[in-house]
Amino acid sequence: MEMRMVDEEQQPHVVILPHLTQGHIKPLLCLAQLLSQSGLYITFVNAHHNHKRFANLQALSTHFPNLHFDSISDGLPDDHPRSRLDFDYISGISEATKPHFKELLLSYRRNYVDHSVFRPPPPVTCIIADGVVSFPIDVAEELGIPIFSFCAYTARYLLEYFTIAKIIQKDNDKKDELINAMPGVDLGHEDLPGFDMENLDHPRVQLRVRETLAMKRASGLILNTIDEFEASCLPHTKSHFPKVYTVAPLHALLNSRLGDRSQVMASDGSLWNADKNCMTWLDSQPLRSVLYVSFGSVVKISHSHLVEFLHALVESGHPFLWVIRPDVLLDKDMDSVIRKEFQVGPTRKGYIVDWAPQEQVLAHNAVGGFLTHSGWNSIMESIVARVPVICWPQFGDQFVNKEYIVKLWKIGVELDAHARDGSTIEATIKTFMGYQRDEFRMSVDKIAELAQDSISQGGSSYYNLEMLVKDIKKMKMYNL
């Protein structure tokens, strides 16, 4: 076998590995596109199951010649739901996926040095991997490849994990003191990331903390946030990592670099096919009259709760565009429910879709508010689009995000996470879409300007992306 020499001028090769869920795939795919535009050779590695669900990869490859796709097994059967961040099976995923990821990297090594392989990928310069799981860091260390951890949520939420780790390690009797010492907005026990503060020895808690702490072993941290949004938290975050790059909002940063993304939006990494007919329906609605409703890609609710939401939306008197995923129900098959009580497409009061092109929906001038589960991607997209929000947090970082929205930035209201009756939901919608909406819009305009400044030339996220690219290019290429 002839050996191929490593070219010192070879294009840097970055392997990007997202977690399984939509909310983690989308921001990393935006980052992948941005890095590919900067002259880096990018391989985006998805699980086989998700890779098959990507819409029109050919369009992405056409628009981003430096962006390439590969896939590995996640060890789960094809019929596994995969639509939740269930930490009970993260360890199983890690155990099953780790050898496949390592073998993929080794195959790049073999193919590059094998002269008989036509146009193999360049040598791997570094890895960017979602910090939800730690096995990519293990693999990177075993192979001697630099790795960056990607954090899909806020610096504040990450610091909460570090605080919980301190409590577990040595300060269990000082939990109140440690929680109150965390920088930023005030939080109570009920707002911590799904932890039972009286049962911190639970294996699930231990696993979540252990996986998060592993991020500190990375060469750097890429944070899906904005310097100006979390000025009080970031100095504390930066003390835990060699380098920190804040690069949000990634979708807006990408849009600013590309201009018109309309030709590639169908290939934005969504695991569902968006119903774009809803955009025509929006065209027929009055200015800022529509409430957009989406619970994201993971949240599940009961049939009875879904019906209460339907009644509340109809009785509120405001037109609505509602995303109801096929897998949203906890206790029934969605197909039978839709046939009996719901109608996909336009209704007398609104429009129901399986999935929507959310960026375009929020940017439409008919949309006046957003009822959201408070996922960080959704929050960032609503801010960029200058749309006030009703927060309905359900788990994880959504409670921290809600605190930012309601208490710190004052660009929305909270719908109690435990609200179950339609009258409460209806009253919240009526008040919000009435006099509150315009008040919040003035506040969201100010926050949106901060986001816009961050992605403009000389802004914090613009600069940090440039620094990330420069640092990757300076890395000594992994010598195969």
How does this model look, in words?
- The protein has 480 residues and is α/β, with parallel strands linked by helices.
- It folds into two domains: 263 residues, Glycogen Phosphorylase B (Rossmann fold), CATH 3.40.50; 184 residues, Glycogen Phosphorylase B (Rossmann fold, 3-Layer(aba) Sandwich).
- Helix content is 44%, strand content 13%.
- The protein is built from 18 helices and 14 strands.
- The strands form two sheets. It has a seven-stranded parallel β-sheet with strand order 3-2-1-4-5-6-7, with helices on both faces. It has a seven-stranded mixed β-sheet with strand order 10-11-9-8-12-13-14, with helices on both faces.
- The chain starts with 12 loop residues before the first strand and ends in a 6-residue tail after the last helix.
The level of helicity is 40-55%
* CATH level-3 fold name of the largest domain: Rossmann fold
Content of β-strand: 5-15%
Please give the CATH architecture of the largest domain.
Answer: 3-Layer(aba) Sandwich
Question: Using DSSP, what is the number of strands?
Answer: 14
Overall number of domains: 2
Structural class: alpha/beta
The parts where pLDDT drops under 50 for at least 5 residues are 1-6
Question: What is the class of the largest domain in the CATH system?
Answer: Alpha Beta
In spatial order, strands of the major sheet run: 3-2-1-4-5-6-7
Rg over CA atoms, rounded to whole Å, is: 22 Å
CATH homologous superfamily annotation of the largest domain: Glycogen Phosphorylase B
Separation of the first and last Cα atoms: 15 Å
Instruction: Round the mean pLDDT to the nearest integer and report it.
Output: 86
C-alpha geometry: globular
Outline the biggest β-sheet. 7 strands, parallel
Number of H/I helices: 18
